[in-house]
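Can't paste images in this forum, so I'm doing it all in text. The chain is below; anyone willing to post the predicted structure tokens underneath?
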Amino acid sequence: VLRIDYRNDFRSSDSFYSYPAESLELGDYILPNIFVSEAKFTQSVKFFISYQNRKIIVELKYGEPMYTFKLEFNFDDIINDIYSELDVSQQRSHGSITIENKYPAKCWVLHKCQKPKDKFNWCIDNFWNRITKNDKMPHFHKDNDQPGKWLVFRITFDLDQIGGLNRFKKLIKKAGKYNLVPRTSSISNFPLKIINGTELCKHFVNRKMLNFKVNYMLECNISFNYLNEYNLCKEFYSLLSQQPTKVSLNILE
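Text version of the structure:
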């Protein structure tokens, strides 16, 4: 287990910003403007961005008993531009940012304990444990195998809670200086189309009709997120199986 001292985490500075968030959604894009939300968290969600360390961290609470988790990824892991949008259709205005990553975020759980400092005093020893494939660790989500597949983060802010629209604009403007969003673009008033992942099904088709080499190459593409299982159907597998092996491999390469 890798331990990180909680007290040595990011400090507030001119290059570090933190915002309370209303929700965090994790999922994937099936098209550039269609986001599939496969998990949503609303308990104590916090968004941190450190320009000095070039990292983004999202904290949340989840589980029974309740644990504090954090998801962390680097600026270099972000692909495409962060999509920012405003939603003024409700009574309270909201701003959202949607971030697509190359790799799954690193996941940590906060370990809290009290230990004796001496005969008369106790001290709090808080540190982060990196979550790995360890059944003894708290589960980040009920589907514990799925978090490694989630590459798209959607964070929604209640603008009243973060200090208003101007503070949200400041966040986006600052991100533009680091090429995380286009410098010349404004915040969109056209929200992404959001689809609940429970309303879709992944086509877990028996792939015995595929040649071993083709099936292996297909699994590699899915594992490395080059292909999305939401977009693969029986017709795709059938067509792939009808091609000569070399042709199928060339397609998947």
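The first strand starts at residue 3 and ends at 5. The chain has two domains: 3-197, 201-252.
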